[in-house]
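In these records, each integer encodes one residue's backbone shape. Here is one protein:

___
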Amino acid sequence: MTDIPRWAVSRTAKLAALPLGFAGRTVLGLGKRVTGLASDVISTEIQERTAEQLFSVLGQLKGGAMKAGQALSVFEAALPDELAAPYRQALTKLQEAAPPLPAGSVHKVLADQLGERWRDTFVEFDDHPAAAASIGQVHKAVWRDESGAGRDVAVKVQYPGAGEALLADLKQLARLSTMFRAIQPGLDIKPLLAELRDRLAEELDYELEARSQRAFATAYADDEQIRVPAVLASAPRVLVTEWLDGVPLSKIINDGTADDRNRAGELMAVLHFSAPARAGLLHADPHPGNFRLLPDGRLGVVDFGAVARLPDGHPEPIGRLVRLALAGDADAVVTGLRDEGFIKPDDPIDAPAVLDFLLPMLEPLAVEEFQFSRKWLRDEATRLASPKSPAYQLSRQLNLPPSYLLIHRVTLGSIGVLSQLEARAPYRRIVQRWLPGFVPAG
């Protein structure tokens, strides 16, 4: 096994082969139309073959291909049932595993980042990675603390050449948007890839990640619901943190009990809405591989490479406009959306239609308890993505201001995980507690 594939010819060949296969399947579909096969059968067959090939290749690569796959994995619940199985299988692997770096390469990075005597800082170090992701892999080790006793730690080691691989993959994947639309009509991955590219420098800097994780750990110190491991050491390409034992959310999604699903969903919502108020940050990588349900019932949170900096907490207009929408005040909602830049100043818009657009997606906050489900998310995805739908037509009149882009993406990603979990919880009460503006002032 060699280091992360960096050479453009090797990586690009795998990714470039994807649209060629898609073109062949499209021609196959045309031939079947001529012979009279029903168009919905053709579409499903093309979708299934495209999904199988696309996710297979994404799963073979680290770098940007894997990063994009992880970001997309949280939307698995929105896929039609006939496509979900190959998607789920390939992307679960992306969330939890990848081909490991050889031990010699890992040792070289550790010596470069922690010094030639890096072994002296550990009582034990397991050369076999416990987990691997898009830009680094995690090893379990025993840290040598001041008392001389050991302390279980996670050592994250960045792949050599990760930055170059990410940039090359994201550039190539941007050309594959047609394939993603074949799998899920209405899905446009270009904004997602652009955002991933913009945040690349932050995710590659493990010292910056260490600062973010320390802020989260301080904010949730001794918390009864959320557990953030402490940072013990950091360098630009190595990060050492406390080890967390727990059940990954990917496993709970696959075979967890209803109580575990509900508990995990509730705590994910608490983290999402409370973190900006408590830490001034939003955990911005909500895929199941970054969360654990711990033996004591808390939610363990890892990987703080992607965060949104919200020093003033969640923007107050979000909570206020959600409250006004649930109250049925269409004119006030339109005025607020226009003030925030979601509607252009001079664009005419039907205020009642805006409420019709918003209220179905706000259903989880309209009741005391709500159960997310794959069906609910699929229905919403269909409503918003179908060109014949009034919601689709109205969405073309709306704009997403840059300041809300990351919040919007993280919220959608979190909803995707909650729908995978099919978690029932008092989401309205959580929002009332933590989202500014949702409860009227005074």
Q: What stands out?
A: The chain has three domains: 8-97+175-189, 103-162+202-242, 245-442. The CA atoms of residues 316 and 436 lie 5 Å apart. The first strand starts at residue 122 and ends at 125. The chain is about 55% helix and 10% strand.
